[in-house]
Design goal:
275 residues; alpha/beta; Helicase, Ruva Protein, domain 3; 7-stranded mixed beta sheet; two-stranded antiparallel sheet; 11 helices; 37% helix; Release factor glutamine methyltransferase; peptide chain release factor N(5)-glutamine methyltransferase activity
Length: 275
């Protein structure tokens, strides 16, 4: 049987991955139930026959482009282990900028917060982990996503998050919030990158929006004012090249103090405004 070191050398087979070595480390940790530090402490450790066979199957699927998060069934976000599946987007590191932005702008210990299109529940659960006295409602249109977010909520034990099925604000009549956040679909349906990388394995409904990717952001910005308290904050994630257009949408909808924050690569990623 091959050793850990020998299996890690097979990273050269992942020609289309941006992080081939890391991909294999995550897969081996998943198979063995060990940490990355353990892998490098025991590089000559051999996989037994069953482990090697499982590794070969996972490697074959990864070479075919399947996301590592789907192969392991989990992804870490804000240091929280979240279950993932094909019903939702895989949480991205750049979305943590949205969490950071809300926490920076909202030092209050008690707030009513709404997360629109919650998917795995990543944003809502990250905020809940930092602010246990905030009351957070997280909604998604897709029943499978609602079920997944609720499973993550229960696994992490957060009692200050309520998961609901709702098409944006459809099930929230009469409810108001201090903060509304969203990572909505914002990719242009004609974007050629939809045929590349991890997004090939994620639901299009969570990725694309009409009007060059701006339709859902426009809908959220227009409807959110009826659900925000005076001075309430709306924060949305968007594409790196959409900052100017989203600021224009926010301004046209009557938001004030509109600004855009940068992601970890220095690209415009988060736009916010106050009611």
């Amino acid at each position: 049987m091959a050793t850990l070191k020998e299996n890690l050398l097979r990273a050269v087979e992942l020609t289309e991955s941006d992080s081939p070595r890391l991909d294999l480390e995550v897969l081996l940790c998943h198979l063995l139930g060990k940490s990355r530090a353990w892998l490098y402490t025991w590089p000559e450790h051999p996989l037994d026959e069953a482990q090697q066979a499982n590794f070969e199957r996972l490697l074959k699927r990864r070479i075919a482009g399947e996301p590592v998060a789907h192969l392991t069934g989990s992804r870490e976000f804000w240091s929280l282990p979240l279950k993932v599946n094909r019903s939702t987007l895989i949480p991205r590191p750049d979305t943590e900028v949205l969490v950071e932005t809300v926490l920076t702008l909202c030092p209050q210990e008690q707030l009513q917060v709404l997360d629109l299109g919650t998917g795995t529940g990543a944003i809502a659960l990250a905020l809940a982990s930092e602010k246990p006295r905030w009351q957070i409602v997280a909604v998604d249109r897709m029943p499978a996503a609602v079920a997944l977010a609720e499973e993550n909520r229960q696994q992490l034990g957060f009692t200050n998050v309520e998961i609901l099925q709702s098409d944006w604000f459809g099930a929230l009549s009469g409810r108001s919030f201090d903060v509304i956040v969203s990572n909505p679909p914002y990719i242009d349906p004609k974007d050629p990158h939809l045929r590349e990388g991890d997004v090939r394995f994620e639901p299009l409904s969570a990725l694309i929006a009409e009007e060059s990717g701006l339709a859902d952001i426009r809908q959220i910005a227009g409807a959110a004012r009826a659900h925000l308290v005076a001075g309430g904050l709306l924060v949305v994630e968007h594409g790196w090249d959409q900052g100017r257009a989203v600021r224009r949408i926010f301004s046209e909808c009557g938001y004030r103090d509109v600004e855009t924050r940068l992601d970890y690569a220095g690209r415009e990623r988060i736009t916010l405004g106050r009611h």
